[in-house]
Design goal:
It is built from 13 helices and 18 strands. It is of the alpha/beta class and 484 residues long. It folds into two domains: 142 residues, Rossmann fold; 279 residues, Dihydrodipicolinate Reductase, domain 2 (2-Layer Sandwich). Helix 1 links the parallel strand 1 and strand 2. The two termini are 38 Å apart. Bound molecules: 6-O-phosphono-beta-D-glucopyranose.
Length: 484
Amino acid sequence: MNLRAPERHTLVCFGATGDLAQRKVLPSIYRLHKATPALHRTAVVGVARSALDDKAYREKVAAVLVKSGVPGEGARAWCEQNLFYCPIGEGAHDAFAALGARLEAIERDMGLPGNRVFYLALPLQAFEPTIRCLGEAGLHRARGWSRLVVEKPFGRDLASAQALNALVHRYFDESCVFRLDHYLGKETVQNLIAFRFGNSLFEPLWNRDRVERVEITVAEDLGVEGRAAFYEEAGAVRDVLQNHVLQLLCLTAMEPPAALDGDSIANEKLKVLRSMSVFDESSAVLGQYAAGELEGKSLLGYREEPGVPEGSEVETFVAVCTRINNWRWHGVPFYLRTGKRMPRKLSRITVVFRSPPAAVFQPLVVCGMACNRLEIALQPNEGFNLTFQVKQPGEGMRLHTQEMRFRYAEAFGPLAEAYQTLLLDVMRGERTLFVRHDEMEEAWRLCEPLINRPRTLLQYPAGSWGPARACTMIDHDGQGWTHQ
Ligand code: BG6
């Protein structure tokens, strides 16, 4: 990991009037500029189709910043000094040439060294024409370095991801490409590396001899929230399983990297993905939420949500049981699950250790024997719980499960926003927390059988933990998922 200071640059944000840019990207850039003296007087150029000028765009962004808690005067002054706008049509070559001229003029006026970050906060279908026009207009051939940031979803399946990678590589070397998965920017996710490789306590236990199973859950209580058009094209497999969940699995299961640089970590993650068989319907459950209830509130079913076509076959839930066929994990089931309209927002990795050989307790009546569990809470209540057995005071041998707890908020206060962490890394050229092209393609390979073909879709009531079949897929000693 390199912690060098970021260099001054021009950040060109495509999709600058969209929800992602306004809610996440621009407020994070503002905070980074304020916190990092090296970024003083660095340009941000918003690019979108709306016919705005600099003044109108600055007012729009200042209002967004104020809404996110920035004092009005500070927001307006920052926008005035650093922010520009350039309207552009999708795939319009002349417009990209004009954008190039505008970038040069801004760089000259602000005395910038000609480094450029191109941030694609765009819907998937706009990636291809934007990268093509940007490349053909030569915007990436600046005086300094040029970096490309691409949001997820990177492709719709393996073939489209391969085609997109080929296009990207026509103009950008892989070392300059930052495929963004915001889960990798979460402190708790980064901490998986510190936790696993910075402590000698757990690593000897982290294998098939000691671990009975691993559960990874990314659950949301929200539904599609007005994003039906996007979600109809995505579904839970493309939206969360292929990226966030598989990245969590890789960081949980990978071997220690040779160093903490982007390629060393990507090499290890890739080995994990390559050691897995493709997901198929026999080991997966796909679901869609029907009408239900949560905390006394009635909830619509997915097919009744505004913008969702009647009879939609898009999955809002997926659970998979998979295995990693390597020396460390052979035979250990990894249960993965993600869904919308579940009982609460919860992202957790639970490592369930094998039961102790109970023979020692045999002559006694033992009550309450349970496995040790390590629970990594990614959100909310970020931290860890380790459960262990103690004797309940009194007669007999009654075992009781107790917990050791660590909570980030108690130890360190509030955590930084993932986008801020990731944007700073882009500005530094640090790729540890981004996804390499081959990892991305491998993750699509695994998910391929669950998309692009007819599947069985089970309904589950909104506000529940998914279809009954998914709830019972873990049936070891009658135990189910840790959270249900
Ligand atoms: C996004 C998905 O990548 O992640 C959304 O597109 C999902 O559908 C979101 O709601 C979840 O992110 P977080 O950080 O709130 O867990």
